[in-house]
């Protein structure tokens, strides 16, 4: 394979993936809604239609990629303002993904790598790391839409011969990270007391450059055909361990308070923030052994390497 189309190439993961692909000598086309934010070397294809409507008709005749990596999505948010979140997520993450697959298949693309989420499986690990064959039980509209998209794409692949590969990352971090990980960085930087010293639950994460490397392998390795993979750094810290490690790299003291987990749950219910609290105190360990055994993939960067790079980026912006 020599040419890869990346949807959402100007996003957090898309930019990292594009850099890895270009460094490895691949031609990269980025399908984006707005021009100008892709990394150098990416050929931009701007399509601002809603949920890829009409993509099969606007696909350039000269564009003939070997693989499509589908990153573009309606992302998970803590407070969704949509009147019907399930419908809004389904329109982009399911129907939009199918339109991309259909357009790609019609133009002779052989493989589509769909970047799903561990939230398509569960929010907690129920006592052992989540595997690819665990019965899925998504808990929110985002997770349900990702699981539905997985099923729809696999059915489409079975009907047409399109090789669909599914990748389910947990929380992704790295330079330019946003959302909850950025909030944790802010709190450590500002010395905000964090009530997490008593939390023993562990959470899997993946450094964005490790995820990008795994996606490249899934796009190009024949052994990935028709598989589903979980991808992690292989290190599962507690939230307290994560905060202390960030403090070390940010050169800031970390203030952790030993608040009992039961009290945190009560506070979550009283403030209507139970979901946020559970993300702090619930265990979500993910087994990424399958991609290692099938593809021989190993993370290029250690967990500490990823935190160090993230902290360097954060310090450079403050």
UniProtKB/TrEMBL annotation:
Residues 4-224 form the NAD-dependent epimerase/dehydratase domain. It comes from the Bacteria. It holds the Pfam family Epimerase. This is SDR family oxidoreductase. CDD domains: UDP_G4E_4_SDR_e (cd05232). InterPro entries: Epimerase_deHydtase, Lipid_A_modif_metabolic_enz, NAD(P)-bd_dom_sf. SUPFAM superfamilies: NAD(P)-binding Rossmann-fold domains (SSF51735). Gene3D superfamilies: NAD(P)-binding Rossmann-like Domain (3.40.50.720).
């Amino acid at each position: 394979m020599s040419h890869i189309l990346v949807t959402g190439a100007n996003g957090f993961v898309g930019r990292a993936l594009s850099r890895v692909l270009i460094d490895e000598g691949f031609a990269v086309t980025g399908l984006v809604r707005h021009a100008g934010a892709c990394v150098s070397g990416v050929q931009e294809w701007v399509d601002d239609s809603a949920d890829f409507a009409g993509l099969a008709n606007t696909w350039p005749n000269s564009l003939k990629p070997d693989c499509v990596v589908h990153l573009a999505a309606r992302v998970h948010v803590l407070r969704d303002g949509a009147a019907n979140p399930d419908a809004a997520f389904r329109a982009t993450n399911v129907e939009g993904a199918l339109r991309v697959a259909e357009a790609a298949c019609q133009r002779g693309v052989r493989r589509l790598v769909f970047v799903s989420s561990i939230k398509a499986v569960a929010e907690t690990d129920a006592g052992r790391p989540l595997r690819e064959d665990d019965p899925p039980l998504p808990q929110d509209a985002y997770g349900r839409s990702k699981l539905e998209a997985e099923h729809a794409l696999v059915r489409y692949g079975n009907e047409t011969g399109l090789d669909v590969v599914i990748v389910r990352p947990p929380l992704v971090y790295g330079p330019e990270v946003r959302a909850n990980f950025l909030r944790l960085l802010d709190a450590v930087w500002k010395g905000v007391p964090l009530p997490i010293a008593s939390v023993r639950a562990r959470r899997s994460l993946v450094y964005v450059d490790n995820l990008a490397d795994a996606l490249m392998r899934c796009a190009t390795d024949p052994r990935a055909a028709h598989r589903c993979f979980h991808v992690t750094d292989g290190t599962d810290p507690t939230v307290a361990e994560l905060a202390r490690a960030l403090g070390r790299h940010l050169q800031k003291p970390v203030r952790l308070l030993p608040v009992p987990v039961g009290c945190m749950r009560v506070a979550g219910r009283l403030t209507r923030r139970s979901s946020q609290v559970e993300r702090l105190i619930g265990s979500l360990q993910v087994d990424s052994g399958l991609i290692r055994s099938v593809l021989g993939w190993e993370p290029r960067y250690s967990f500490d390497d990823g935190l160090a790079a993230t902290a360097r980026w954060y310090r450079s912006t403050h």
